């Protein structure tokens, strides 16, 4: 492909994959075999919170409540204590509500269906897509605010508002 045609076609998507392989952070919830519940917890914790604070909190959370059934039975005070410095404690309470719904509606296993995930308390489009993609290996759209801003600059030349 000529340089002019390449420029017209836009960036090569393989470059993003290559960059990721070279620079991806080693996050515990990205390891193969990580449960859908563990991915859900990581995604909710990561909302508006630096990953450096999420990793130790996620590890402690998973030690205490390794699955939705364990979290569904957790005491509110203990959940909020472990949530600690992550901020926005309502997210922790929504996770408990989601865990209870998973136990009641799905036998303790996070569903692999987008609509069923979206029906869980505190789960929106990005989180549902992340669970489907990262836990179940499905092709799912996962556009967070940062990715949307980059795409807006590449495609339209301007940033979208936060």
Automatic annotation (TrEMBL):
**Cofactor(s) the protein needs:** [4Fe-4S] cluster
Q: What catalytic activity is recorded?
A: Hydrolyzes free adenine bases from 7,8-dihydro-8-oxoguanine:adenine mismatched double-stranded DNA, leaving an apurinic site
**Which keywords belong to this entry?**
DNA damage, DNA repair, Glycosidase, Hydrolase, Iron, Iron-sulfur, Metal-binding
Q: Which SUPFAM superfamilies match?
A: DNA-glycosylase
EC class, as a word, reads hydrolase
The source's domain of life comes to Bacteria
User: Which InterPro entries does the annotation name?
Assistant: DNA_glycosylase (IPR011257), Endonuclease-III-like_CS2 (IPR004036), HhH-GPD_domain (IPR003265), HhH_motif (IPR000445), MIG/MutY (IPR044298)
Q: Report any one BP term from Gene Ontology.
A: mismatch repair
One GO term in the molecular function aspect is: oxidized purine DNA binding
Q: What is its EC number?
A: 3.2.2.31
Q: Where is the HhH-GPD domain?
A: 45-159
Protein family per UniProt: Belongs to the Nth/MutY family.
The protein's matches in PANTHER family, at most eight in alphabetical order, are given as:
ADENINE DNA GLYCOSYLASE (PTHR42944)
The name under which this protein is listed is Adenine DNA glycosylase
Origin organism of this chain?
Answer: Actinomyces urogenitalis DSM 15434
Upper taxonomic lineage: Bacteria, Bacillati, Actinomycetota, Actinomycetes, Actinomycetales
